[in-house]
Amino acid sequence: MELTYRAVQERLRAVGVVMSKRGDVVRINFFGGLEDTASYFTSLREALDMGLQMGNRANSGLSPTKWVQSNTSEVKRYRPRQRP
């Protein structure tokens, strides 16, 4: 698969993960997920890999929040600057 934003977005959508982009930062989350389950990346490869893991959590039986809590060592958090 070619690693373009659109290709990664479609692949993640197929496993139940949404992706958006603001500037150079890519945000992924479960469909309908709250902010505490979102993850932020600057690399499409990292976003794809983590998004596929998030999509596979459906087979593990964990809720989105519990999945993120159990995988916090792998999740990168990016907090955008607050606008004045």
List the helices and strands and how they pair.
Blueprint lengths: L4 H10 L2 E6 L2 E6 L8 E3 L2 H17 L3 H7 L14
Antiparallel strand pairs: 1-2, 2-3
Helix pairs in contact: 1-2
Explain this structure to me?
This protein has helices at residues 5-14, 44-60, 64-70; strands spanning 17-22, 25-30, 39-41. The chain has a three-stranded antiparallel β-sheet. 23% of the residues are buried. Helix 1 packs parallel to helix 2. The protein has 84 residues and is of the alpha+beta class. The N and C termini lie far apart (41 Å). It is built from three helices and three strands. It has one domain (5-70).
Care to give the gist of this entry?
This protein is of the alpha+beta class and 84 residues long. It contains 3 helices and 3 strands.
Mean of pLDDT: 80
| SSE order | HEEEHH
Integer count of domains: 1
How much of the sequence is in beta strands?
15-25%
The neighbouring-strand order within the major sheet is 1-2-3
Poorly predicted parts: none
The main β sheet shows up as: 3 strands, antiparallel
